[in-house]
TrEMBL record:
Record's keyword terms, sorted: Hydrolase, Protein phosphatase
Entry similarity comment: Belongs to the metallo-dependent hydrolases superfamily. CpsB/CapC family.
TM region(s), chain numbering: none
InterPro entries listed in its UniProt record: Caps_polysacc_synth_CpsB/CapC, Pol/histidinol_Pase-like
Protein name per its UniProtKB record: Tyrosine-protein phosphatase
Reactions it catalyzes: O-phospho-L-tyrosyl-[protein] + H2O = L-tyrosyl-[protein] + phosphate
Recorded GO MF terms: manganese ion binding; protein tyrosine phosphatase activity
Record-listed E.C. numbers: 3.1.3.48
Length: 261
């Protein structure tokens, strides 16, 4: 499994505080079957700034330490970029990091609103050949109230990344049920941990996929898993027929039909 959103790098944001914690997180990731992850420290969110040079250096050092310790995990560089006025300039000048050097970037909106320029940014990024993955839209208050506004961003070329903890109920019932609805409505393309530590914000990726298998079926699991691989390999994110919103009920009907056999 590949996890495209983690805070594993030590001491630079609210994720792992030191190397010991980073290595412990890496071991926990491997224990649940994660073979590669993208380190995506917060960037430009008003509290943390983690420029490319710092991220690249720490990723390089973490990878070396993992090699020495014999932990079979590949770490890729990235950033969780809070959308900001200089976003396009940062992308154009390559000051901002994409995920694993691909054409995909991980963007974070404020938790309460969808910024007015969000649509314009998604469009402009597309023109630059850059594809926007929006981190945990299920936790954005405006998306919760107006899912159609997030749908519009998806229609304009954005992708949605839901957090494992949202699907598993750690952020409350409302976000949990909304997350599942976003999955079945085709507004989710990737599932990631957004892991910050080994406690309440751990990985739980294998657990989330297992629950997706139970609730939505194996096709969803395969699609989400393959999409995470597609990100680090700079391939295409797939939106298969199971996400055909013209009539999602028919898939539920077939699923129930087969489940009863
Ligand atoms: Fe994050």
């Amino acid at each position: 499994m590949i996890d495209i959103h983690t805070h594993i790098l030590p001491g630079i944001d609210d994720g792992a505080p030191d190397w010991e914690a980073s290595l412990a997180m890496a071991r926990a990731a491997v224990a649940e079957g994660i073979t590669g992850l993208v380190a995506t420290p917060h960037h430009a969110n008003g509290k943390y700034d983690n420029p490319k040079s710092i991220v690249s250096e720490l990723v390089w050092e973490l990878q070396n330490r993992l090699k020495v310790e014999g932990v079979p995990l590949t770490v890729y560089s990235g950033q969780e970029i809070r959308v900001h006025t200089d976003l396009l300039e940062g992308i154009e000048t390559k000051e901002l990091l994409s995920l694993a050097g691909s054409a995909y970037v991980l963007l974070e909106m404020p938790s309460s609103t969808i910024p007015e320029r969000m649509s314009e940014w998604v469009y402009e990024l597309n023109l630059l050949g850059v594809k926007a993955i929006i981190a945990h839209p299920e936790r954005n208050a405006e998306v919760l109230q107006h899912p159609d506004r997030f749908q519009r961003l998806v229609d304009e070329g954005a992708y949605g990344q839901v957090t494992t903890h949202s699907l598993l109920g750690a952020f409350g019932k409302k976000i949990e049920s909304f997350s599942w609805k976003m999955c079945s409505d085709g507004l989710v393309h990737l599932v990631s941990s957004d892991a910050h530590n080994l406690g309440v914000r751990g990985f739980r990726l294998a657990e989330a996929y297992e629950k997706i298998n139970q609730k939505l079926g194996l096709e969803y699991v395969q699609t989400y898993r393959n999409n995470a691989i597609a990100v680090i390999e700079n391939g295409e994110i797939q939106i298969p027929h199971i996400f055909d919103k013209t009539d999602p009920r028919k898939w539920n009907f077939f699923r129930k039909l087969f489940a009863n056999r």
